[in-house]
Amino acid sequence: MNEKQYIKRAEQFVKTFHNQDTTGHDWHHISRVRNSALYIKEQEQSGNKFIIEMSALLHDIPDEKLNQSKEEGDQRLNNFLESLHLEQKVKQEIISCISTVSFKGGKAYSKLSIEAQIVQDADRLDAMGAIGIARAFAYSGASGQEIYNPDLPVRTAMNEAEYRTGKSSAINHFYEKLLKLKDLLHTNTAKRLANDRHLFMEAFLDEFFKEWNGQK
């Protein structure tokens, strides 16, 4: 198979896996991340296009939130890549890139390839702005979390397990993750795109609390 055929196989696999997702991790999210990653790659004139596109398409396949366990997700990704009979080096580059995409409570990675930086930036951009707000509420609803509860404090220092399983709310999620993303981006292109999205989220929160407190 050539690279276009690999991409087509990945698209079909991902569409099936994310079919009817209601957590904000549907095919449309994947497609936006792929498009943003390719745009960033072109603007930055850096990175391997095939690794970036495959990693963007497959980045949520092993996500623990969407599988019964981390091990199940990793195996699902590995099985699919094995079925493509890719060169081992290429397969490992894709797996390595995907392994660093998720926020995981703000976990920092010491060294990321340019491909991983680009895909991570693209994924984080989709968690910001109007779409990021919509996805935050979709995920909170699907997870049984409240819109907002003033008695729930914003969590500050969290490990990955606490971030995944601790009690929170959709509004707290802004302070625990979404408002932090602008300062965690790598590429100049993503930083530029993030500015308006960050301001939009801040404006939304201002309006939310005015209405919550009966000021409007």
Structure explained in plain terms:
This protein is an all-alpha fold. The chain has one domain: Hypothetical protein af1432. The protein is 62% helix and 0% strand. It has ten helices and no strands. It has helices at residues 3-17, 27-44, 49-58, 70-84, 88-99, 114-125, 129-142, 160-165, 170-176, 188-212. Helix 6 runs parallel beside helix 10 (188-212). The mean pLDDT is 92. It comes from Cytobacillus horneckiae. This is HD domain-containing protein.
Portion in strands: under 5%
Q: Could you describe the largest sheet, including whether it forms a barrel?
A: none
Q: Strand pairing plus helix content: what structural class?
A: mainly alpha
Query: How many domains would you count in the coordinates?
Result: 1
Strands, count: 0
Q: Which overall shape is indicated by the principal axes computed on the Cα atoms?
A: globular
Oligomer: single chain
Unreliable stretches covering 5 or more consecutive residues: none
**Counting H and I runs of at least 4 residues, what is the number of helices?**
10
Along the chain, the helix and strand elements come as: HHHHHHHHHH
Q: Which key terms come to mind for this protein?
A:
Hypothetical protein af1432; 0% strand; single chain; mainly alpha; 216 residues
Summed up:
The protein is mainly alpha-helical. It has helices at residues 3-17, 27-44, 49-58, 70-84, 88-99, 114-125, 129-142, 160-165, 170-176, 188-212. It contains ten helices and no strands.
How are the elements arranged and paired?
Blueprint: H1 3-17, H2 27-44, H3 49-58, H4 70-84, H5 88-99, H6 114-125, H7 129-142, H8 160-165, H9 170-176, H10 188-212
Helix pairs in contact: 1-3, 2-3, 2-6, 3-5, 3-6, 6-10, 7-9
Pfam family, one: HD
InterPro entries: HD/PDEase_dom (IPR003607), HD_domain (IPR006674)
Domain HD/PDEase: 22-137
